[in-house]
User: What shape does this take?
Amino acid sequence: MKKVITGDHAVAIGAKLSRVEVVPAFPITPQTLIIEHIADFVNDGEMDAKFLTMESEHSVMSAAAAAEAAGARVFTATSSQGLAFMHEMLYATAPLRLPVVMVNANRTLGGPPGIWCEYNDSMGVRDSGWLQVYVEDNQEALDMVIQAYRIAEDKRILLPIMPCLDGFVLTHTVEPVEIPEQQDVDSFLPPYEPDVILDPARPAMIGTFMPAEYIMELRRQTAGAVESAKEVIQEINDDFAKRFGRDYGGLIDAYQMEDAEAALVTMGTVTSTSRQVVDEMRQEGEKVGLIKLRFFRPFPSEELKNALKDTTAVGVLDRSLSFIGGGQAFNEVRSALYGLSIPIINHLAGLGGRDVTEMQIRKMFELTLRAANGEKVKSVNWHNTRGETV
Amino acid sequence: MFELRFHGRGGQGAVMAAQTIAEAAVIEGNYAVAFPFFGAERRGAPVLAFARIDSKKIYSKTQVYAPDCEVVLDDSLLDTIDVVSGLKPDGIVVINSKDKPEDIDLGKEIRTGAVDATSVALEILKAPITNTAILGALAKATGIIKIESIEEAIKRRFGEKLGAKVGERNALAARTAYDRTVVGKSKGIKKLETKKQWLPSYQELPVGGVLVEGRTEAGLIGPGSFVENKVFGWATFRPVRDKEKCTMCLLCWFYCPEGTIVRISDRGDLMTNYDYCKGCGICANECPVDAIKMVRGKT
Assistant: This one.
């Protein structure tokens, strides 16, 4: 069945179809619609879940971790300042291997406050051990909530995961979304059955004090789980594609890359707009291609290297800034491509929610093509920024 | 460079002792560092502290593994910890003990300075805090630092924190211990076994470090494993309850931080499980009718 719904609505339906059992929640724009829809589902008896209104996001993640430790399938959503407020608890859920699924509606984190899309909220927690996937449209938002539970709860992984969707560009935009049948989701996603839970009949210690004699090994263990997630994500992507007919490519998605000379690496909704620009420029005879960086954790270093090794120049579009010159995606992609002698340049755009237009993306491709032709191009390019020239 | 390792129990002041020796060394024109190492902060639990003294700036930021001097603030630690582990062959042990060096079995014959620092502390400070007394013994046994510098350092550090009078009294404790310290050679009879520790590889560590009740070669792990962690050796005093005075108000039962006071419901009585009593004295302090007295001796 097709429905014309917002990204937030799609996410809420994804959580309902995943038979979530506990939803601790705190509102924040632009994710509030998600928990409002879920509150409606629970109230109307469409969803058999415990809906907990918490007093802060820190409490939301505390409750989420505790409910998960008690064996429940947990969902929550947050954004920006809310994500920052639960920072501490994010660093507890991942090493303790509690597979919480939380959607982050990307929103600028500041002062000065703003409400529109920027990735500086979720990028700030990229080292927490949470897996992160960035989606391109409302359909992918819904589908990735369902996949997220399969990925997170897989016994080879057991890590929390954060599907990220662009604030307003997806959260508040309606478009047609195919709603999967409950029975199909049920056969794709088995119930959550953890080995050890908090149960008085079989006592367990979860998250107790741990001295230096153990934490190094615990870190190594978490690192191993993040690494092995790569294979499992691909496997689950392929199974989903087989059952539902929608293949997102896994860790990355390549578009028009076969003979591409200049490639642009993008995340989230700018990927959609970029596809359009690639089509136009291809018609003009330019050999341009696109890599959608879907998963930021685990980071697909090998996959990127394989996909980009035959190009002559790579541009990376960042919607957030790391203060070492350029964005986080740029620095990590460049690190992944270490050893390849391809120029890699950064395109900063859309910070604070500034609209990223086709014109800007075309400019990014043009700059990348100039680098491909051996021209000297600035390493970091601020697009549509007063006082900067690109 | 002269390196020291301090073995003590939480509350005895091992950390302050290490800091004070560093200050004394600086008073004498040297460079010195001192730092602690402890797990969950818990009164009575074994604590480590370290100090290094040199004539020039010290760059090493690691723990001390081969000390020149080993300071033991509590000889009950000898039962569970190989205090002389890594001690240099010509090193020296300074120990708080009622016994003479030749009667102390360290598992190695080693130069040893002994003093009954607990008695010195109880006489002068009216509390079993032995850190300043042991520093007097350290000055006497090692000769690396003058007792006058120790006294000055104590007056500065303790005086600043707790007032000039307390500083003076602690300096007197150091001087008294200095006078009473006997230097000799320890016995080396007992076989020292280092306590086994469960050290899983990252593959062996249960996922997320989550533990259920279990047993390893090193003992129990997970919930309930603290049953093996008997603490009666930690105590300087033990609580003794006068049943006649006791009104069964249960304040002691409520306040005991270790849960060692057990209610025997069918008799309407209380019992102290001395295996897990670390002799902190909170029960005696809270008792509204003074029915509990703290008596010198292990629980």
User: Anything to note?
Assistant: Chain B has a mean pLDDT of 92.
